[in-house]
């Protein structure tokens, strides 16, 4: 992707909290076993995500699996831009290309989208 993930700085100039769902120590939510409802929501978003990427960004469906990295799934900067626009159009979600590109896997990307759709920062 070539896009570096940036940390936010607090008012004191120290790094802010890490983004949600990006690793085992990212947030209390990621340190516990997700509820059945959270897994269901992420699965639904994963299906929607795959649909957007194949129908709107023209990617082949086979490499877009939950555990695939964005690069392995073929999700390049153009696909991320299309995804960002489609999320805003379809769901009213505003996620920047940088935010979307920071997800390490397709499942983490789906989790990020599900989290934002649920109203979590």
From TrEMBL:
Residue ranges with Low complexity bias: 1-14
Organism: Streptomyces dioscori
Assigned keywords, A-Z: Phosphopantetheine, Phosphoprotein
One MF term in the entry's GO annotations: phosphopantetheine binding
SUPFAM superfamilies assigned: ACP-like (SSF47336)
Carrier domain sequence ranges: 43-117
Disordered, as annotated region: 1-42
Domain of life, per lineage: Bacteria
Cross-referenced InterPro entries: ACP-like_sf, PKS_PP-bd, PP-bd_ACP
Protein name (database record): Carrier domain-containing protein
Record's compositionally biased regions (Basic and acidic residues): 30-42
Regions that span the bilayer: none
GO biological process: antibiotic biosynthetic process
